[in-house]
Structures are given as structure tokens and as C-alpha cells.
Design brief:
The chain is of the alpha/beta class. The chain has three domains: 66 residues, Orthogonal Bundle (Arc Repressor Mutant, subunit A), CATH 1.10.10.10; 103 residues, D-Maltodextrin-Binding Protein, domain 2, CATH 3.40.190.10; 102 residues, 3-Layer(aba) Sandwich (D-Maltodextrin-Binding Protein, domain 2). The protein contains eleven helices and 13 strands. It has a five-stranded mixed sheet, with helices on both faces. The longest helix has 27 residues. The chain is elongated, with a radius of gyration of 23 Å. The two termini are 41 Å apart.
């Protein structure tokens, strides 16, 4: 394990970009940490870091070596997870990256259900956009990614997919609440809450606006779906969400309703559950992946695959 401890030191230095910051995180002196790095570089026969005035940065050899380091650390976690599973007490840490559409609604229920059966398993949930999620999968910073409406590269394995039709969210007293389905032009007379940054929902809306030549009144820009859900009770304003982001977080709230937008106006999007292609996940992460895939299929049986 001493060898792996040294590899962890290298990994932390690479992530922090500073020997001093890494030393503080590892609770050792920066001098001792620097000696370990120099000793490893001497053993390998080449420097791994560029020494800069403000810190350190991996060089080309370091970039190659850090991939080996992270694979070693990941493989050890997987083996330890298998060993723990033999005892009948599942342990481990599951790391998930997902967009704001998913973090607030779908994942809390899934994590809670899993931990009822396996309370020794811990979770790390990171809110991130699709590009950051894919980058984190490559660097092995996360085990599972959930991305919305993305073109995926060849090094990513799609484990499950569900079609998502965009919904309009509003108060139950809003004039449009009487409609069963909404056209995009119906939204034009009212103030709108839109996502601030580019992402799955914002992309679908932008495509719909181009397709229908409709202009919406962008009254509030926010990436917080908690804010959107809470705000619509204060004003006759419209927000947007996908089904996976609404159940049961939104659908059980009194005074809040949702209506689908006609797919003639706004195209449907795709939710993908993904992992790094060829990677064998630790037991805890693999079992959680199985659970969310099964529940995705159960909830969206007509559109999941």
C-alpha cells in the first residue's frame, strides 16, 4: 500500500497544481512532499511536473503517468469494494456527475432507496454540465455520469437512455393551466424563467424558438430549479423542466402544475446514463448503476432503452 500512497500524493499534486496546497490537503510538509515527488521522478528517469512561479503543472510525461496512477487507484477501490462485498456488508463510495435537471429530483430518491439497503455506502454528487461530466469520466473523478441531450464521444459507454419531452411549469392559477398541452406561442405573452447557461433544456428551447419563430420574454435567468419552482407561486411566470427533473420533487407540490409542450414546436431530448467505456466499476457503483437503470426503464418504459 506504500506504493499506492505515493501515487495518491502525485494525484493530489496534479489536481491542486501546487505542492504547498497538496501538502496541506495531505497533512504533510511541503518539503517532505517535494522530496517524494523528486524521488519518484528520479526512479522514473524523467520529470513529471513543470515547476512554475505559481505552482506546478504536469508535463507530457506527467500526463501519461497520471492516467496510470488514477487507474491504479480506481482498480484498488474496485478490489476493496469486492472484498467488502464478500462479507455481506456492501461498502464503497459512489461518485456521480449530473446536470441541474437531475441533481434536484431524480438522484435524491435513488440514493435514499439505495442507502436503505446499503447504509455503509457513501455518495459524492457533483452538479456539472455535460462537457464537464464527460471530462470527469475520462479522468476517473466520477464513476457514473448522467447527461442530457448530448452528442457523446466514442470513449463513453451509454448504459441507458430515456426520451424526455419538455414541460412548462406554472402555478395552478396560471391561465395556461387550463390547457392539456401547450404550444410555444402560447407562452409568448407571459414572463419566462429560462436557464442561464447552455445545457439540455436551454438548447431544446432555443431550437424551438428558431423552429417556430416565437420570441419569449426572458424575465429571469437562473440555473436553479429550486428557485424556479418556488418563484412561480409568486407571479404568473412560466418555467421549463423535463419529466426526470419533476418526479416526485415537483409533481407532488400543491399549487404547481406542469403541461407538456407540443413536440411540433420543441423537440424531445435524451437523457443518457453513461460510464467510461471498458471500465469495470466498483461493486457499490455498479449496483447503484443497475438500480437507476431499472428505475429509469420502469418510469419511462415507453421511451427508455
Amino acid at each position: 500500500m506504500r506504493h499506492l500512497t505515493q501515487l495518491r500524493y502525485i494525484d493530489v499534486v496534479a489536481r491542486e497544481g501546487s505542492i504547498r496546497k497538496a501538502a496541506e490537503k495531505l497533512s504533510i510538509t511541503s518539503t517532505a512532499l517535494n522530496r517524494r515527488i523528486l524521488a519518484l521522478e528520479d526512479e522514473i528517469g524523467t520529470p513529471l511536473f513543470e515547476r512554475l512561479p505559481g505552482g506546478v503543472r504536469l508535463n507530457t510525461a506527467g500526463e501519461l503517468f497520471i492516467q496510470h496512477v488514477r487507474m491504479q487507484i480506481t482498480d484498488l477501490s474496485r478490489v476493496l469494494s469486492h472484498i467488502a462485498d464478500l462479507s455481506g456488508i456492501r461498502r464503497g463510495n459512489v461518485r456521480i456527475g449530473a446536470g441541474p435537471e437531475i441533481v434536484g429530483a431524480f438522484l435524491p430518491t435513488q440514493v435514499a432507496d439505495y442507502r436503505k439497503q446499503h447504509s455503509a455506502v457513501t455518495f459524492e454528487i457533483v452538479r456539472m454540465g455535460s462537457e464537464e461530466t464527460l471530462a470527469s469520466l475520462r479522468s476517473l473523478d466520477i464513476d457514473i455520469g448522467i447527461v442530457f441531450d448530448s452528442v457523446l464521444p466514442s470513449d463513453v459507454q451509454i448504459v441507458a437512455t430515456a426520451i424526455q419531452q419538455l414541460n412548462v411549469i406554472m402555478s395552478a392559477t396560471h391561465p395556461l393551466a387550463e390547457k392539456k398541452q401547450i404550444r410555444l406561442q402560447d407562452c409568448a405573452p407571459y414572463p419566462i424563467i429560462l436557464p442561464r447557461t447552455a445545457g439540455g433544456i436551454r438548447t431544446l428551447i432555443d431550437v424551438g424558438l428558431v423552429r417556430s419563430s416565437v420570441t419569449l420574454e426572458q424575465t429571469i435567468l437562473s440555473d436553479s430549479y429550486d428557485f424556479m419552482t418556488n418563484y412561480i407561486s409568486h407571479e404568473e411566470i412560466l418555467g421549463f423542466q423535463i419529466p426526470l427533473g419533476m418526479s416526485p420533487y415537483l409533481t407532488e407540490r400543491q399549487g404547481v402544475v406542469h403541461r407538456t409542450i407540443d413536440s411540433q414546436d420543441v423537440p424531445t431530448g435524451l437523457i443518457h446514463i453513461v460510464q467510461t467505456k471498458g471500465r469495470v466499476l466498483p461493486v457499490a457503483a455498479a449496483k447503484f448503476m443497475d438500480q437507476i437503470v431499472q428505475n429509469l426503464h420502469a418510469e419511462f418504459e415507453d421511451s427508455a432503452r
